[in-house]
Amino acid sequence: MARVVILDYGSGNLRSAERALQRAGADVEVTADHRAAVEAEGLVVPGVGAFAACMEGLLEVGGDKIIDQRLSGGRPVLGICVGMQVLFGQGVEHGVQADGCGQWPGTVERLHADVLPHMGWNTVQAPSDSVLFAGLDADTRFYFVHSFAVRKWELESSDTIATPQVTWAEHGEPFVAAVENGALMATQFHPEKSGDAGARLLRNWLEAL
Description:
Layout: E1 3-7, H1 14-23, E2 27-31, H2 34-39, E3 42-45, H3 51-60, H4 63-72, E4 77-80, H5 82-85, E5 88-93, E6 96-99, E7 104-110, E8 118-123, E9 141-146, E10 148-150, E11 165-170, E12 174-181, E13 184-187, H6 195-207
Parallel strand pairs: 1-2, 1-3, 3-4, 4-13, 5-7
Antiparallel strand pairs: 5-6, 7-10, 8-9, 11-12, 12-13
């Protein structure tokens, strides 16, 4: 079984994520221990609540440095919900702007939609050669709970940097639902709450470790 650490920084559905990953076949530890988080085969960064509060908690346990250290060695990281959002450059929420980890350029901001939060099941538009969504039909639905998202993908492709695979969903307008960028992957939705579809996605991630 793959050894996976769920980073405990005071935010996220830790136990539901732990149970989902265990069911998917992982040996899971929930901890903020730096060494364990760096050395595990996979690291999951969950997150619920406000962007700024999640970043504050992440910085308190050195989570930004853990993510940097893992990625510098090509070691997989999976962000979930606000755990995905904090990987971007900044978040703007209720007039409060906070810096993120800056792994990708972009701003997390309020969706333009008649009904918020975006809560419930929604389809996504994934690239045909996606790793995370392999084996899942185009009409597969995942569970979302959020009012803020990345509405514009800002990382430009180049000859030296492979273009990340971006999955989109729509609620009032298109937004980034998932990103696959080498060792760094993330979902705006909650795979641990997405039933069989979420379980398949987590197994796909574990198999790629």
